[in-house]
Each structure stands twice: as C-alpha cells, then as structure tokens.
Specification:
This protein has 122 residues and is mainly alpha-helical. It has one domain. 46% of the residues lie in helices and 0% in strands. The chain contains 4 helices and no strands. Helix 2 packs across helix 4. The longest helix has 23 residues. 16% of the residues are buried.
C-alpha cells in the first residue's frame, strides 16, 4: 500500500509544471533535448515511487482530454483571428488554427496524460 501523497502547491500548478500527481515534487516526463521527439514518461516517481507507466491501454482515455484541449485552442485561435484581425482572409483562419494546434501538440500530449492521471489515480 502506498503512503498518501502530500500535494505540494495547487493542483493547476502541478499539472502545468508536469509534476507527480501523488506527491507534486518529481517530474512525470523526462527532459528532452530533441525538438521533434515524442515525450518519454518515466516509469515511476523518484520521490514517492508512484507508478506513472500503467497497463497497456490505460491512457486511451487521455485522448479525449487531448481532443478537448486542441478544440479549445482552435476555438480561441478562431476568436482571436476574427476579433483582432477582422480583415484576415477566410482561408488563413483555419490555417492559423491548424498551426496553433500543431504548435501545442507536444505540450498537449503531456498535459492530457497528467490530467488523466489526476482524474483517475491508481
């Protein structure tokens, strides 16, 4: 049985800084120096030994969170384009939306998994 975690800092801060959902101290993902490499999740927390790497298929539900975050950023980009740049040609609006979604894809991948771990702890 694992000890109960002591969350250091607010929940939103832990999620945005990619901290362990159990103790809030260790990083969930390893640091990457490669720009286009997929993020690598650590197997467990270095501080509380909380297991990050779950059984195969566990993070399939994180795809729904990832989709929601991508839609949110797409809508925000659309609103910014229409409100602040009303003269922008219509063809550039979806291109801008796609660019922003691709720009945040790596962070979205990480955040969706961390949010999913916070919603469904093990």
């Amino acid at each position: 049985m694992k000890e109960s975690g002591k969350n250091k800092g607010p929940l939103i801060s832990n999620i945005l800084h990619e901290k362990c959902p159990h103790c809030g101290q260790s990083q969930v993902f390893e640091k990457s120096t490669k720009l286009f490499a997929m993020p690598v999740m650590k197997e467990s927390c270095e501080v509380c030994h909380y297991t990050f790497d779950r059984e195969p298929g566990y993070f399939l539900g994180a795809m729904y969170i990832s989709y929601g975050v991508a839609v949110l950023f797409g809508i925000l980009t659309f609103l910014i384009c229409r409100l602040f740049f009303p003269q922008m040609p219509t063809v550039f609006v979806p291109l801008s939306m796609g660019f922003v979604i691709l720009l945040i894809a790596k962070k979205n991948y990480k955040l969706s998994r961390i949010i999913y771990m916070h919603i469904f702890p093990w």
